């Protein structure tokens, strides 16, 4: 489904590669957590996967099609199948839960319909169902700026789900949330993941969460993959290598 083929990224003016020779193949059903210290390349990796960041070398293939060969419009079609959630939620604060969730349909609609805010009966029904799935029915008409962080992330998840995605990408979606709320958000992500047989890829700083929820862990260090395997194989030693040690030793299981 997703093949990351020996990619490297060097930002303009950068002294070293932000990502270096990364090779990964992922399929639907994989729930992948990306671990690594700040600056190890996690966000750059996510941005390469959805085509927001061009690679300096190598290529990202979705179902055997290289992102680098796609025109902007085709890239938008690929992105429509990728639901994104963000650390700072990226919602429209003055709009309600319902209105924010409905923006998840925008990739499928004409600019005119988006501008005038016309939604079909089917879109409205689905939005209400998904809001119920994330347990926010009682908040549906509240402005998003009045919600807690955990509730905002639920809105983010609902908006992404309305896109009908095949892939769920999260760039540190629980970094600003407390441990209990983070756990509940991951539980919800896992529920959506299993129900729709998604490919889920989440950057996370919390190793415990990764070990609890991921089916596969990838650890980055200085832009290189130093671990790729099952959560139970990510032991104290791998933890130390990822977050403390200066030497880079790859372990792919
Ligand atoms: N737009 C940019 N221009 C130049 N350098 C960048 C840019 N974005 C990231 N970098 C550099 O690339 C490297 C990887 O950054 P990236 O944001 O991918 O790391 P990260 O693991 O996601 O970090 P964090 O956990 O702090 O979000 C870092 O050295 C960073 O300074």
From TrEMBL:
GO terms for molecular function: ABC-type phosphonate transporter activity; ATP binding; ATP hydrolysis activity. SMART domains: AAA (SM00382). The keyword Chloroplast does not apply. InterPro entries: AAA+_ATPase, ABC_transporter-like_ATP-bd, ABC_transporter-like_CS, ABC_transpr_PhnC, MetN_ABC_transporter-like, P-loop_NTPase. GO terms for cellular component: membrane. Coiled coil: none annotated. Pfam families: ABC_tran. Keywords: ATP-binding, Cell membrane, Membrane, Nucleotide-binding, Phosphonate transport, Translocase, Transport. Gene3D superfamilies: P-loop containing nucleotide triphosphate hydrolases (3.40.50.300). This is Phosphonates import ATP-binding protein PhnC. It comes from Virgibacillus oceani. The lineage of its organism: Bacteria, Bacillati, Bacillota, Bacilli, Bacillales. The gene is phnC.
